[in-house]
Amino acid sequence: MIAIDAGNTRIKWGVHDATGWVGRGALPTADAARLREQAGDWPQEAQILACNVAGASVEGEMTSALAGRFAPIRWLRSSAETCGVRNNYDEPTRLGADRWAAMIGARGRVQGACLVVCAGTATTVDWLAADGEFRGGLILPGVDLMRTSLARNTAQLPLADGHFSIAPRNTADAIFTGCLQAQVGAVERMYAALRAESDPLCLLTGGAAPCIAPHLSIPFQVVDNLILDGLLSFGASL
Fold first, then answer.
1. DSSP 3-state assignment of 182?
2. In degrees rounded to 5, what are phi and psi of residue 162?
3. How many C-beta neighbours within 10 Å does residue 207 have?
4. How many Cβ atoms from other residues are within 10 Å of residue 186's Cβ?
5. Which of 7, 66, 153, 184 has its C-alpha lying 20 to 30 A from 14's C-alpha?
6. pTM of whole model > 0.90?
7. Which position among 98, 126, 199, 229 bears the catalytic label?
8. Is 199 a catalytic residue?
9. Cα separation, 95 vs 97, whole angstroms
10. What strands lie across the sheet with 21-28, from one edge to the other?
11. Containing H/E element for 25?
12. Picking from 49-53, 58-62, 110-114, 155-159, which range would have the lowest pLDDT averaged per residue?
């Protein structure tokens, strides 16, 4: 199976041979048409599973890039229930497919309650109950998006590389620390709500996971490509 996660910034992919990942890669979402080049070494008989939150044009470019050489892509769409996960969103089909895939991946790893955190361009923090029900979740700008927003919309706050400090004493450190603490605070406040009902684990994935992880004071595991794991489970269920 080949799993593809089309996010706002990058398209991530992995080739799985039923025993493990045998190849992984990524390219900028703006270069979606180049997926044809990336697929040059993929086995033609592979089933392709994908999710997309980057819009219809990116989905069209991906479909065109792989057409002819592979069977049609099987797209994961958010639904009422898949792979043991029940969707409690007010409008289940409006849930982001990447969040849905991550929760499916989490369900394959953890049978108890868990907090599923995807830290990318945006950060999502989703509550998955022990019985497989998605209770709800948060969406907030990711660390870099927060920093960029401050630089773009304020006159005297630059886009600078700062460092974490408990008590920052320069502007760059104050910005970086503030943005990072906002991420950690959102995760830990949601975790506190879960902990009132169970003994949950936090699964943390995404490009900003290494930045956030050292500052969490809750039980957590960093999982590479949890979304791709969810796509594999989806493919196995078809």
1. helix
2. -105, -175
3. 18
4. 17
5. 184
6. yes
7. 98
8. no
9. 6
10. 21-28, 10-16, 2-6, 48-52, 74-75
11. strand 21-28
12. 155-159
